[in-house]
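Teaching assistant's notes for section 4

Start the section by putting this record on the projector. Ask students to predict, before seeing the second block, whether LUD domain-containing protein will look compact or extended. Collect guesses on the board.
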Amino acid sequence: MSGRDVVLARIRRALADVPRGEGPSDPPVPRDYLRVHGSRTAGQNVDLLAENLAEYRAIVHRCGPGGLPVLIARLLAERGARSVVVPAGLEPGWLAGAEVTRVPDVPSATARELDAVDSVVTGCALAIAETGTIVLDAGPDQGRRRITLVPDHHICVVRVPGQVVSSVPEALPRLSPDRPLTWISGPSATSDIELDRVEGVHGPRTLEVILLAAG
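Reveal the predicted structure now:
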C-alpha cells in the first residue's frame, strides 16, 4: 500500500459518519464567543492600549494636537535621526519642527536605500486595546508596507479615542481585506531556542507610539 493509499484511507474513516452530500458550511457553527472582554469607556480603552503597548516594549507618549510637532522633533533629535521616510499623505505640520532630511515614499526605493534612513513617521488605520496592536493598511499617512519594516525606528501616531477599538472582532469590520494590512504588537522581536530575545529582526528595533488626543 502506497503512502497515498494510507492517507486516503484515513480520510475515508474520518468522514464515515458524515451524511452524503453535506458540505463544510452546512452544519451550524455556534458563534457565541465574546466580542469584547469586559466593559470599558473610550478613555479606559486608550489606557489599556497604552498599558499593553508598553508591555510589548513599545515606547508610549501622549500629547494634544498643539504639542505633536514639538514632540516628534524631540523624539527624532533624541534618536539622532538625520533622515526620515515621509508617507505622501502625512500631515506636513507633524514634522514642522524637525531638522531632518525628508525622504519621500516612492516605489523605486530599494530595501538597501530604506535601510540607510534613520526613522519613519506614520499614522495608522486603528489600534486594538486588548492586544496592544497597531494596524496599518497602507493609507495615505502610512505609506507602503516596506517603509515601516526596514528603517530601525518607527514613530506611529494614533488618534485617540477615534482610532482605538476594544478588540480584534471590533477591528475587523473597520478594515478592508483588499488592503495590505500590517499588524504590529511592539517592536519586531524573536527568541531563539534558549529564549534569548532579539529585537529588530523582522522590522524596527524601536517603536514609539504617540497617542494624539482630539483637539
